[in-house]
Amino acid sequence: MTIASIRSAGRPEERKSQTVEIAMSSDTRTWALEVQDAEEVRRVPIGARGLVFGSSRIADVLVRDRTVSKQHCEISVVGRGVAVRDLGSTNGTFVGGARVREALGMEGTTIAIGQTTLVCVAVDGEEEDEHADPLPGLAGSSRAIRRVAAQVRRLACLSSPVLVAGETGVGKELIARALHTEGPRSLDAFVAMNVAALPRELVESELFGHERGAFTGAVSRRVGAFTEAEGGTLFLDEIGELPIDAQPKLLRALDGYEVRRVGAAGSGRRATARVVVATHVPLQENVRRGSFRRDLFHRLEVFVVDVPPLRDRPGDVLPIARLLLAQQESEIGKRELTPAAIAQLASYDWPGNVRELRNVLCRAADLARSARWLDAAVVDKALRRPQRTIVELTPDTAREALERHGGNMSAAARSSGVPRTTFRKLIGETLPGPKKA
What we know:
The chain has helices at 143-156, 172-181, 203-208, 225-228, 247-254, 283-289, 294-300, 317-327, 329-332, 339-347, 353-367, 376-382, 395-404, 409-416, 420-426, and strands at 2-7, 17-22, 30-36, 41-45, 51-54, 61-62, 73-78, 81-86, 93-95, 98-100, 102-105, 110-113, 116-123, 162-165, 190-194, 233-237, 258-259, 269-270, 274-279, 303-306, 336-337, 373-374. The protein is of the alpha/beta class. It is built from 15 helices and 22 strands. Helix 11 packs across helix 12 (376-382) and helix 13 crosses helix 14 (409-416). The strands form 6 sheets. Strands 4-3-13-12-9-10 form a 6-stranded antiparallel β-sheet. The model is unreliable at 1-8, 10-26 and 429-437 (pLDDT under 50).
């Protein structure tokens, strides 16, 4: 049995602690932290004795962040999890959006210290792809996005079509552009087209071009996207919206046959553009419904790049947020995030992914008016959810949260902004089984 003390942060007179016995079984996995500070992302193995993180060289891991204390927190491996202990830091240690004295993290848990995030990673045997350099222009260096970067660099040198799959707002066009810039076609054109935004009657004309007088309104000749992207890359977003009657012509172009303008006589010309398509819905569903040709689907899915949603790579939230704020600096001025605000952003699920993050930051900047620092209260308002004050959890407040949620521990933990394991230990003295040491 391992004895673990779980204590909340707060003023001395408010701090309560409890010591509970936690049954810990051996775990053969090794643990590491993906550290994202002001300068870089790096992976730091935790090791058997644990590590002290801080902004001073006396710390085991030097964090380049002026908002991090000299010795900010200690992180060690405990059984099947990672123990986090604040060392009396000035700006606090946050786990899942709540400021804590001690907590237990699991795979994917995000720890925020100052303006730095630490993501817990259970390593079962590292893959070579996890060490790939991030893609230029794509913020974030998590393990998941490094895998994508390695795949993109492999596929960039090929000419076969690539299907980029992922939820709305994850940055599928950025991946398509990386496939272009990282390969031999980078000096030629990159042409992007959103299929869903095209009028149905003009899809073929936009893709393949038309001759003057080919239809009403065709007052001049148009070359079309395939010709514009000749030798380069043609990116077709929302490919699942392509009308069924236009799909055979796209298939013919992908199979190396001719591309002929609407209304043109005689033979056309062979397409030389590399085609990259994107979808946020599974194309197999469209195939089953009969709205997408099976042969075209199989022609497009030669290679598939799955872009993970933001909730699966919380360590990327902070660098993406910084990039978005920098991109909007001319409009909103220079803005920075407080440690508590960073903890709020890192603990949110982001169903709208990067697009939603951009919107939240815009709203937060507007709410804060001329203030340079965006704090947790402003971020909560910008998220358009009931305002949740950053609380310093105690066993009493944890029990109150459990009562409000009818005994549902998972729901109570989510509302409190901490992992379920941490929440359980805060209320451990009221649960059957564990005894005080």
